[in-house]
Amino acid sequence: MYAIMRSKKLSSFGCVAASLKHCYRGRETPNAIPELTHWNQHLEASNTDEAMGKLREMLPEKRRKDAVLAVEYVMTASPDWWKQANQEQQAEFFARSRKWLADKYGADRIITASIHRDEKSPHLSAFVIPLTQDGRLSAKEFIGDRKKMSLDQSTFAASVADLGLHRGIEGSKARHTRLKAFYSAIETPEQHIEITPEALEPRRYKPNGIAEKLGLSKRFENQETIARRLTKAVQEGYAKAVEMAAIARQEREKARQAQETSKNLRDRLKPVLDALEPLDAQNRRIFGELMRLAGEKLLSNQQQQQAQRKEQEREAKRDRSGPSMSR
Q1: Considering the entire predicted model, what is its pTM?
Q2: Which of these, 164, 163, 169, 166, lies nearest to 150 by C-alpha position?
Q3: Hey, is 114 helix, strand or coil?
């Protein structure tokens, strides 16, 4: 079972407001269950206007036109984990998620954080301002490149590791599911395409030419054209279902790769985990924090080694291509 984190950069007030309206259920959310919406919790800000007000107050007056104003995060776990986790564990997951964001950006940079329990999988939706200590907007400094995003996935998973959650396989070739696609997958209801008898009837083409415009002649679809029209309609109708199926295949492949990679590690760690079983929750959290720090240190060492190897390769290449001495 995996810890899941997705992020999205928002570069305009309109984009931020639209995402906040979804967060506060200010617009229709097809996959949400209205009877459960009252169980949602809104922290830091109670509505869209309040959150937008906090955003405007914190933004620096001087900023680039294309600057990222906020970063939206969705933090959740595998559906099976929510089925077996008790209320205390679920509350701890949300608390750890907020703490991870506060440690990364600063607690005052979180303009709102909402716990949604009215959808298939509970999740935390949070909006943070990528504001540096010297008052600059810089999503690049916080999110960075692929290596930094990979490190974020590792540290987030480590922060909830003792809750029984793991990171997806590092370096997997499975494609990352973007936040828009993630929301689309959990919100889109089942689709049913129906072909009516009327759709099988040949349709008249739009008049073209003087004779047709005067009604002297008419053109209608033939069977081949009707078949193409109906095929296109079915393909467009099921396009979203195909996209969701592709996402599901990717997630299954991720799970398969992770299971193969982690099986031996679990077997090797079993004696350690068995020894930790008698510890209370506080000590388990301490152990989880130690594991997180160890993981960061290991990743940092690996990155330094990779940088050193690349530098050695560049130096060797310069030596080979240097000027030759002639008599």
Answers
A1: 0.56
A2: 169
A3: strand
